[in-house]
Specification:
By secondary structure, the protein is of the alpha/beta class. The chain has 12 helices and 14 strands. It folds into 3 domains: about 130 residues, Rossmann fold; about 140 residues, Argininosuccinate synthetase, chain A, domain 2; about 25 residues, no CATH class. Helix content is about 40%, strand content about 20%. The strands form 3 sheets. Strands 3-2-1-4-5 form a 5-stranded parallel beta sheet, sandwiched between helices. Strands 10-9-8-13-14 form a 5-stranded antiparallel beta sheet, with helices on one face. Strands 6-7-12-11 form a 4-stranded antiparallel beta sheet, with no helix packed on it.
Length: about 400
C-alpha cells in the first residue's frame, strides 16, 4: 500500500464513493483525485465538487461528456442494432468504456499510481472498468474497495460516514429500495423488491416514462433522418447526437415507450433481475432497422444479424477496447455507407411503429416488387430453375430413401 501515493477515483458524490474517498485516504495514506462524468444522468454533477473539497480532495475533474458518449459510443453501437440476450439495450455497459478511458487518462495527466471505482464484487461493472483500464494502460494499478473492505451493507456505510463526518444527503431510513444507474441511453433499477423475479415493479419506481395506460390517446409522429447509419436530424432539423437522445427520451417517455423488465446473465456467472427505461434507444433501434431494410444489401444485413450477438456480448462483458470489437466495428461501419434517408415512426401507448421510410439509396424497386403488372421488370419463369437448383440436394436425398 505504501507504493500508492495518488489514486484517481470514479466519483459520483453518492454514499458509496464518498466513503471510498475517505477509505482510500486512510488505508493507503494517499492523495485522491476525483473524476465525475456527466453522461446525461439527469442530475447535477457540480455538487460533487463541494463534497470532494470537504474531504480534502485537491484535484477534482468534472466533465460534460454527453456528446462524446452519444457520438463515439452509443451511435457506433446502434449501427449494429445491438441487443444483449434479445432484449437489453446495454445502457450501463456502453458507458463504462468511456469512464475507464478517462480514468486512465487522468491518472497519466496527474501522475497517479492507481485508479479506483465503486463497483461491487458481484457485478459486471468491475469487469468492464478493469478490462478497459488494463487494455489502455497495461501497468495500471486498480483498487476495488468492495472486494477488499469489510463494509458489506448500506448500514455499515452509513455508520462509517457518520463516524468520519461524511455528509450524506437524502437519508431515507436505513435501506434504499433500488440501485440505479442513469445516462443518456437509459436508467436502470436493481435490488430491493426486484430481487424477487415474480414481483411486479411498483409504478412509482419508473422515473422517465408514464405507463402506457396513462399515455396520450393520440399518437405522436416523429421523422428521423439518417446519414451513414447515424441520426443527424429530427423532423428536418439538424441535431447533435446527445440532443437527439435527449429529445427522443422525452417524447418516448411521454408515450410510455422503453420500459423493460428482464432477468439477464451476468458475466460473473449469476442471473440478475433488472428493470430499464430506454425510450430513445428503443426508438433509435426500430428506426435504424427500418432505414437498413431499404438501403442495406440482403447478405450484408444477414451477416450483421449473425454477428450482432457476439458484438453485444463483447460490450456487455467489458471488451469494448479489444481487437475483436474493433474488427467487428470496422465491418459494421463499412456496411453503413449507404444507410441514409428518412424514417417516420408513430409512438403510441408504449409502442414504436415504423410507418414510413425513404432514401435516395433505396434498393427497394416498386416496379419489381409490385403485385400488379410489372411490365417485364421481373421474369417470373426464372423462378422455376432457381427453385429446382435449390431443391436438387433435397431431391437426391429423398430419392435415396433418406427420411427427415
Amino acid at each position: 500500500m505504501s507504493d500508492i501515493k495518488k489514486v484517481v477515483l470514479a466519483y459520483s458524490g453518492g454514499l458509496d464513493t464518498s466513503v471510498i474517498v475517505k477509505w482510500l485516504q486512510d488505508e493507503y495514506q494517499c492523495e485522491v483525485v476525483t473524476f465525475t462524468a456527466d453522461l446525461g444522468q439527469g442530475e447535477e454533477v457540480e455538487p460533487a465538487r463541494a463534497k470532494a473539497e470537504a474531504m480534502g480532495v485537491k484535484e477534482i475533474y468534472i466533465e460534460d461528456l454527453r456528446e462524446e458518449f452519444a457520438a463515439n459510443y452509443v451511435y457506433p453501437m446502434f449501427r449494429a442494432n445491438t441487443i444483449y440476450e434479445g432484449e437489453y439495450l446495454l445502457g450501463t455497459s456502453i458507458a463504462r468504456p468511456l469512464i475507464a478511458r478517462r480514468l486512465v487518462e487522468i491518472a497519466q495527466e496527474t501522475g497517479a499510481d492507481a485508479i479506483s471505482h465503486g463497483a461491487t464484487g458481484k457485478g459486471n461493472d468491475q469487469v468492464r472498468f478493469e478490462l478497459g483500464a488494463y487494455a489502455l494502460a497495461p501497468g495500471i494499478e486498480v483498487i476495488a474497495p468492495w472486494r477488499d473492505w469489510d463494509l458489506t451493507s448500506r448500514e455499515s456505510l452509513l455508520a462509517y460516514a457518520e463516524k468520519h463526518g461524511i455528509a450524506v444527503e437524502m437519508k431515507r431510513g436505513k435501506k434504499s429500495p433500488y440501485s440505479m444507474d442513469a445516462n443518456l441511453l437509459h436508467i436502470s433499477y436493481e435490488g430491493g423488491p426486484l430481487e424477487d423475479p415474480w414481483t411486479e415493479a411498483e409504478e412509482d419506481m419508473w422515473r422517465w416514462s408514464v405507463s402506457p395506460e396513462k399515455s396520450p390517446n393520440d399518437p405522436t409522429y416523429v421523422e428521423l433522418t439518417f446519414e451513414k447509419g447515424d441520426i443527424v436530424a429530427i423532423d428536418g432539423k439538424p441535431t447533435s447526437p446527445a440532443t437527439v437522445m435527449e429529445y427522443l427520451n422525452k417524447i418516448g417517455g411521454e408515450n410510455g415507450v422503453g420500459r423493460l423488465d428482464i432477468v439477464e446473465n451476468r458475466y460473473v456467472g449469476m442471473k440478475a433481475r433488472g428493470c430499464y427505461e430506454t425510450p430513445a434507444g428503443t426508438i433509435m433501434l426500430r428506426a435504424h432497422r427500418a432505414i437498413e431494410s431499404i438501403t442495406l444489401d440482403r447478405e450484408a444485413a444477414h451477416l450483421k444479424d449473425e454477428l450482432m450477438p457476439r458484438y453485444a456480448s463483447l460490450i456487455y462483458n467489458g471488451y469494448w477496447w479489444s481487437p475483436e470489437r474493433e474488427a467487428l466495428q470496422a465491418l459494421i461501419d463499412n456496411t453503413q455507407k449507404y444507410v441514409s434517408g428518412d424514417v417516420r415512426v408513430k409512438l403510441y401507448k408504449g409502442n414504436v411503429t415504423v410507418v414510413g421510410r425513404r432514401s435516395e439509396q433505396t434498393l427497394f424497386d416498386e416496379n419489381i416488387a409490385t403485385f400488379e403488372d410489372d411490365a417485364g421488370a421481373y421474369n417470373q419463369k426464372d423462378a422455376e430453375g432457381f427453385i429446382k437448383l435449390n431443391a436438387l440436394r433435397l431431391r437426391i436425398a429423398a430419392g435415396k430413401g433418406r427420411k427427415l
